[in-house]
Amino acid sequence: MIELTVPDAASMEALGARIAPLLRAGDVLLLDGELGAGKTTLTRGLGAALGARGAITSPTFVLAREHPTAGGVPLVHVDAYRLPGAVELDDLDLDWAGAITVVEWGSGKVESLVDAWLRVALDRPTGVAADTDGEEPDEPRRVVIRGHGARGRELEAALRA
Amino acid sequence: MTAPLVLGIETSCDETGVGIVRGSTLLANVIASSMDEHARYGGVVPEVAARAHLEALRPTLEAALEQAGVALGEVDAIAVTSGPGLAGALMVGLGAAKALAMALDRPLYAVNHLVGHVGVDLLDPEPLELPAIALLVSGGHTSLLRVRSLTDDVELLGETIDDAAGEAFDKVARLLGLPYPGGPQIDRAAVGGDPAAIRFPRGLTHPKDLERHRYDFSFSGLKTAVARHVEAARDRGEEVALADVAASFREAVADVLTAKAVRACHELEIPRLLLGGGVVANARVRELAAERAAAAGIELRIPPLALCTDNGAMIAALGAALVARGRPPSPFDVPADSTLPVGTVLC
Amino acid sequence: MLLAIDTSAGTAVAVVDRAGAILAERADAATRRHVEVVGDLLRAALAEAGIGASEITGVVAGMGPGPFTGLRVGIAAARAFAFGVGCPVVPVVSHDAVALGRAEPVVVATDARRRELAVSHYGPPDAGGLPARLAGPELVPAGPIEVPIGATLLEVSEIPAGALGALGARLLELGRRLGPGEPLYLRAPDVTLSAGPKRVTA
């Protein structure tokens, strides 16, 4: 398990960029965290580092979006929030083996579909009456990274190194 | 020689659209929507949309031909959306369009959905003079474009870096306990609310953001701010002032959308602005756009609502423009591309 | 002349004559490229058969079972082609094409993803020489398949479009209908569609 504090959005993107070069086709990244915790921000950093085509934006509306990348392995960005379970996630007919897949809100759904994954849990402070006077709140996030399955543990170890 | 008769097929999201145009004259625009089926999932479900497209395609084609009063054999070209959009949904329209083009021995034009939203203005008796700025806002897209030529030169000035505006409406509606789709729900909840009650953030409008994201949008911070506002009120044991929150949120979205669009018109010295996409249905967005465009001396164009939301007519119109320009048709192996860049008008 | 299209596994296209003789057959085994290849395969098959699209008098559609996204491409193409030339669609269960012409009982199995197989059981052909499906298609967990004594297991990764076309020709000749009008998704309960068709508004 890796625990980090990520101070701002730029650092969250940097974390994504750090994970990116470790990934290959078949790898699955599971992102957990409340609305606004930084899941898409992390994915944006990851996508930029992979040379993904197109803006990495929230896939909540479309559920899944495929970005071709410079390295040839597409980045598939999934938002499973609206999906009740693994069966519905599987209905998306994703090519898990042929892509790098990032699944937001994927806990409890991805685990039965793939053998290994890297889980990144993001935590933002909640409920604080923020000063939102035209400025976006940008507070530190607590990040916990844990690999599952052989490949997931391998990724966790590589990230720790 | 008469203008080309083009049939357009659109299946990028939850609307099965077939449109028929002759040159720049709209003959038919038929839409079958699976929106109702998605409502209970809180948003579009690709598998539901794709299944519905397959079943709706033939009746929609038949209805469009009847509405246009033309026979299928008279059609000169087939245009179809090949992206961006839901991959599985796009594939239904594209697979059908290829087979239809083959059966009729007619050329196939696989075109960009977003450019189609701009191309719909061609159907206006007096199309907007180019270059023009276009603001496209829907559940899946929030993009600002500079259009010098519809067929050859469409430039992405900016887009959302996180949530699409329509998506922000859906998410905030969910936060407030309102059903999908969020746009009309927020509109209803905002009645009587004070749009200035809460100063929610306007994403990417600060000087430091403008350097990197001059024409980009961000609605994630806004969404988070609403979430925090609601959480804070509940933590204090207070009732959430629904009308004020809804009105203030909507104001923030309308403000930033129209401000950036008007800024682009001003800075790029293009006093012409076209709006498109489903979020244009939002009265406050239209109102504020009209107000600001008038104040800035910008000619504003908002197509009729049936041509703002996803439809086949806009795809047919763009196809007809490509035919008229003598552009070669698409190769038959053209793929569905869920993230097709806006600069690619014709695949 | 009949055109046959199946995308329940890879992409397969064939042109057969009314007697069921195969004039052209084209296939691409890739399981995620249906929409890319279907157009060129159609063109190539028609060219090889040496006929124009307007000479097609029926389109045989493989209705699955198969993974949804790809399966739909072929059905959409078959329906659109038939609409374009103004001829009927002949829906056929894709597994039936594999069983066609086998004298003995067979079990046909194809990949259904999700660690499942789609399986159909057939007895000896019926009096018309058509495959007699006793059970299925249905989903079973991937792994060893139960095969009745005397039956042959046909676990295939491609559906032969030529056989699909030949079966369609035979059905037309006999005035019979074997296949379903709707795709065999086999996983319909995941997303329950409304019973009625979508509203079509101008």
What would you note in describing this structure?
The complex is a heterotrimer of chains A (161), B (347) and C (202). Chain A is built from 4 helices and 7 strands; from the N terminus they run βαβαββαβββα. With 161 residues, chain A is α/β, with parallel strands linked by helices. Chain A has one domain: 3-Layer(aba) Sandwich (Rossmann fold). About 6% of the residues of chain A have low confidence. Chain B has 2 domains: 136 residues, Nucleotidyltransferase, domain 5; 172 residues, Nucleotidyltransferase, domain 5. In chain B, helix 5 runs parallel beside helix 8. Chain B is globular, with a radius of gyration of 20 Å. Chain C has one domain: 2-Layer Sandwich (Nucleotidyltransferase, domain 5). Chain C has 4 helices and 10 strands; from the N terminus they run βββαβαβαββββαβ. Chain C has a 5-stranded mixed sheet, with helices on both faces. In chain C, strand 7 and strand 8 form a beta hairpin. The C terminus of chain C is likely disordered. The chains are: A alpha/beta (161), B alpha/beta (347), C alpha/beta (202). At the B-C interface, strand 3, helix 2 and helix 3 of B face helix 1, helix 2 and strand 10 of C. Strand 3 of chain B pairs antiparallel with strand 10 of chain C.
N- to C-terminal separation of chain C? Answer: 36 Å
What is the CATH class designation of the largest domain in chain B?
Alpha Beta
N-to-C series of helices and strands of chain B: EEEHHEHEHEEEHHHHHEHEHH
The CATH homologous superfamily of the largest domain in chain B is named: ATPase, nucleotide binding domain
**N-to-C series of helices and strands of chain C:** EEEHEHEHEEEEHE
Supply the helix-strand structural class of chain B. alpha/beta
Number of strands of chain B: 10
CATH architecture of chain C: 2-Layer Sandwich
Helix content of chain B: 40-55%
Largest interface comes to: B-C, 51 and 45 residues
Largest sheet of chain C: 5 strands, mixed
Q: What is the C-alpha radius of gyration of chain C, as a whole number of Å? A: 16 Å
What portion of residues of chain B belong to β-strands? 15-25%
Provide a count of the helices of chain C.
4
CATH superfamily of chain C: ATPase, nucleotide binding domain
Low-confidence stretches of chain B: none
Helix content of chain C: 25-40%
